[in-house]
Design goal:
Blueprint lengths: L13 H11 L1 H33 L6 H46 L2 H5 L3 H20 L2 H21 L1 H48 L1 H7 L2 H49 L3 H7 L3 H42 L17 E10 L2 E11 L4 E5 L6 H8 L7 E6 L2 E2 L5 H7 E4 L10 H6 L7 H11 L2 H5 L16 H14 L4 E5 L7 H15 L3 E5 L9 E4 L2
Parallel strand pairs: 3-8, 3-9, 6-7, 7-8
Antiparallel strand pairs: 1-2, 1-4, 4-5
Helix pairs in contact: 1-3, 2-3, 2-6, 2-11, 3-5, 5-11, 6-7, 6-11, 7-9, 7-11, 9-10, 9-11, 15-17, 17-18
The structure holds adenosine-5'-triphosphate.
Amino acid sequence: MTNNINQNNKSNSVAEIILYTIKSRLLLSFAIVSAVVMAIVTSLFPPLILGGIIDAMTAGQAVNWGMILAYFGLIVLTGLMEAAREALLTVFGQKITHALRSGLMDKFTRLTADCLNKQEPGAVVSRFVGDVDTVEALFTSGIISMFADVCRIISILAVIWFRNKGLAIVIVVLLPFLFWFTRHVQKNMLSAQIANRRAVSRASGHVPETLHNIRTVHTLGREKYMEQRYDEYISEGYRAMEKTNFYDAIYSPVILILNAVVIAVVMLFSASGSPVVLTLFGMSAGTAVAVMNYISQIFSPVESLGMEIQTIQSALAGVKRIDEFLAQDEFAKQDTKAPDGPVVRFDNVTFGYDDKNILNDFSFEVRTGEQVTLSGRTGAGKSTIFKLILGLYRPDRGSVTIGGVNSADIPDKAKRRLFGYVEQSFHMVPGTVKDQITLFDESVTMDEVKKAAELTGLDDAIMSLPDGYDTKCTADIFSQGQWQLLSIARAAAAQPKLLLLDEITANLDADTEKTVLSALKRVSENRTVISISHRVNASAGRIITIG
Ligand SMILES: Nc1ncnc2c1ncn2[C@@H]1O[C@H](COP(=O)(O)OP(=O)(O)OP(=O)(O)O)[C@@H](O)[C@H]1O
């Protein structure tokens, strides 16, 4: 099938959607970058000012109040900038989520029926929900935070370098180990958490499974076996939890000890009498305080970096899956006008799903105003003929035309006024009774809605509802027969030229069937009607046997 992407200039990859969101929210994007940079810059100064204050105090000089105010002011400002960054990132993340979900939905509506047929509903849902969430996390707790943390580490290192070169060297040597240790702990914790979740879901699934098969379990005496399996799942969960707890427990103490060791090493060197060592490690009391402050500040971005890498990895997998979804074949339509009349022609049509042929070299014609019934065994392909008439599929060979136009090329807008399709059962849309009939098509007027309901004999029942046509629809407001009448009203409202009726009385009792058939007779007048029926005697007009 032809790839007709970029209809209406729609985005076809996550990168394009993100770029578009950034471009259309330039102010927001600029505010985020500013907050990130400001938070880094303002967090660098307080330890330096504190160092200055302590140096002044140890030298016996008066403490400058301006410096104290600046110290607290900058701490407050850093907090404010970090809060602003988080808030703005959350807003930005929501914009991304919105844009991605809209892009996915837009794509979804343009996919071919063939393509949709092959999709697992659960997999499609997870593109919209889980994968979009991971891409949102890419921004809220992924690359931007990573950028902020890397900048923070570099800027702290730079400040330490100017204050105490020896300490900067110690930290540079230590950082790879620190990073490796953090990643090691995080990876192990993650795999333990996944194992735990798997064990918990197995254990919780085991109870209903046992209940479901309780007779078989008792009859075959498998109680002990079921109990042992449950025990195994629970033990598996415990083992995983213990592993998580172990890593959780050791991480903080190791970091604290490392922190203390670095400070102790630097203090020992700075207290040494050797002039060579002192060129690298020598410092005043104020600098010592500032440096200690910086050391503890450097550990937290390293820890965050590990989590951010994890977030980015899973987000990239989500990006790949969404990109695959967006790259699927779309319905390729020729630029055609709406057909003039409802003459249906199948010319030597061959069609099948996958490799199985349903129609072979099949031809027939229905003329304007004709009433035709398709009859044939189950699975012969009657509903498939409707799908081809509605243009949901293209024939593999031959052609299906309505009024001379290939059915698959008929513009969507023209379809409502061309086809009225009634199925075996009614599919309710969320909304009022009127919405059921219009299907939110604003071109269908209230007058047409009322006429359609009157024609099917449903108007009185609708008017007796609390809010008439504006009553919110719930499953219990109509009987099964009334739902089917509503279905006919829905099909008739836009006054279509061609009515397609698929076994519409299949689920009804004899009395209701009579009501529905007489409503249908009124609706069918002066229209071309093609119906599917197993019971040929209940149908009217020319009969075409399929298969
Ligand atoms: N979307 C689909 N994907 C794959 N196979 C399909 C699909 N829809 C229908 N089929 C298969 O095509 C064949 C014809 O189906 P169709 O629904 O057109 O038959 P039918 O004559 O309307 O049957 P019934 O009278 O039972 O409604 C069946 O074997 C069915 O399993």
